[in-house]
Predict the structure of Pyridoxal-phosphate dependent enzyme.
Amino acid sequence: MVENYTKLSIYDDIVQTIGETPLVRLKKIEKYFNVKNELYAKVEFFNPGGSIKDRIGKYMIEGAKKEGKIVEGGVIIEPTSGNTGLGLALVAADEGYLTVFTMPDKMSLEKEFLLKALGAFVIRTPTAVAPGDPNSYYKVAEAVRNLIWKKKRPVTREELKEIVEYVQKLVKEEKIDELREILDERIEETPYAYIPNQYFNKYNPLAHYETTAREIWKQTKGSINYLFAGIGTGGTITGIGRYIKEKRRDVKIIGVDPVGSIYNLVKKGMSLEEAVKKAHPYLVEGIGEDILPETVDLSLVDDIVVVNDQEAFAMTRFLARKEGILVGGSSGAALYGTIKYLKENGVKGKKVVIIFPDTGRNYLTKIFNDKWLLENGFEIDDEKVLEGLR
Ligand code: PMP
């Protein structure tokens, strides 16, 4: 029986269908791993773009419109690992804005094709460069923005295509000095190009404070004891953490961080400088950082549990077979981290909510492809990897 189900309506546009995602109990997982707690997954692939990031796409564009940062005919540009791009792209398509996304090479091809299907332009950048380098995905987005600002008027789709191809060529040919020149030139800001920047945008955590958190509170009737979420920009855990801590301070907010990211090190008290030095690449997508974004407030996070790529991937694959829930690697990481944390800390009889940020369809050629796993040195016997958690 469907109770309190509010999504059985007719909507005026796709943007209105964002949010109100279900909580799904993970009974088979609880039994297999002998978890003495109730596990509920907030399954965010029910959003129209397939991820939790649709929520912030909507909030960041609405916020920019309200504040006059973007006007009709404007271009929205974002450095993104994919999901935020998709959220922005579908809201932008609905509202008539052009979009450009810059993405590191390591991100899956599927994500690039999805963005292009929604009318966006995509520029690929090298993965292993510092965020401040002129060919990093952050800086390449600024270069595109500056070239549009320079025109002092809205650009056509054709003009935008030329700008995108020019910048992609500079990146590919490693013309660092030319990129730096575009970045350093003093250009007047116009509302014809805007970078929402999910890492610094207050509407990112606000989207989760006002929607994701309220939904969880309502769905659990305020009976939640633990919330587990991966930390990328930190918007999810910060927005949810803030709302829930205002309601009941004793609810534990636990972050899940990949090995190689800085969050767990900073939370343990290491200086940011030291932590950044220790950061190293990993393959799970969407979580972990080598910078400390403005959108994260680690004071709301009670603890952080660390998960490696192998554990994340094995759990993601196992979850699909065991529960029929096909999600991405950050969801598998969150679930692995949850069970590990609950067991290590002897937690029993609690209601636990875990955020599953996106769909596994984004990773069919990677996490769900044995050949890719083997080529990258991973074990494909998931049960063997997970044995230690039982
Ligand atoms: N998982 C995936 C797949 C993501 O794309 C993101 C967003 N980077 C996250 C988790 C983390 O969410 P947040 O940025 O709100 O911390």
